[in-house]
Amino acid sequence: MLEIKDLYVNYGAVEAIKGISFYVKPGEIVTLIGANGAGKTTTLHTISGLVKAKSGSITYNGTDLLKTEPSKMVSLGIAHVPEGRHVFPEMTVEENLEMGAYSKKDKAAIQESMADVFEKFPRLKERRRQLAGTLSGGEQQMLAVGRALMSRPGIILMDEPSMGLSPILVKEVFSIIEEIHAAGITVLLNEQNAKMALSIADRAYVLETGTISISGNAKDLLEDERVKKAYLGQ
């Protein structure tokens, strides 16, 4: 479904990504874990076309993403929930959701997608006329996810969805990720909360300073002494 091969990304003279290769199969939750500055966000931004690669390849269902305009990613079935949520604060909840379906022309299908999002996130339905900037952090995260779901993606890229949230809301966000997955959407998840990420993922890759240092079955990595020591506080 998604395959990254020998990917290099530079910021000026700085090598941010140093030849990483990994893949995501249909129906999986795959997580990238690692410390701040490891290259997780850069990897997602490069997949989405927001950052240009120096070399390597990224393919999604046979399409070369490095030769695809960022504006075309949604129509290919790729949705991105960015780090920090980035909702449109001066627009209502409903308007934010409509922005997620900007590539869709069928109004009935858009309304159906919105009904699905409101069923998944009842709080968003209650606040549909409220400005997004007045929502709590957790509600904004729900809105960012809901906006991504409006395009009915095949894969959703999620960047640090639990950042800045209380422990109760973190659990809620991870439950939402599992729901999305159960609905048939593939998930590539960047997450600093390694324990939570590994507990719901199928497979995982550990990024360290732009390289993949460890990879494998997520449940195995939960028991890996190197991962425990570096990322699980044990």
Polypeptide structure, described:
The model has no long low-confidence stretch (mean pLDDT 91). This protein has helices spanning 40-48, 73-76, 93-100, 107-120, 122-126, 137-149, 167-182, 194-200, 218-222, 225-231, and strands at 2-11, 14-24, 29-33, 55-60, 63-64, 78-81, 155-159, 186-190, 203-208, 211-217. It is globular and about 45 Å long. It is α/β, with parallel strands linked by helices and 234 residues long. Helix content is 38%, strand content 26%. It has 10 helices and 10 strands. The strands form 2 sheets. The protein has a 6-stranded mixed sheet, with helices on both faces. It has a 4-stranded antiparallel sheet with strand order 2-1-4-5, with helices on one face. The two termini are 35 Å apart.
Sheet with most strands: 6 strands, mixed
Number of helices: 10
* DSSP strand content: 25-35%
Low-confidence stretches: none
Global Rg:
17 Å
Summed over residues and divided by their number, the pLDDT gives a mean of 91
Structural class: alpha/beta
Q: Report the span from N to C terminus.
A: 35 Å
Number of strands: 10
Strand adjacency order, main sheet: 6-7-8-3-9-10
Helix proportion range? 25-40%
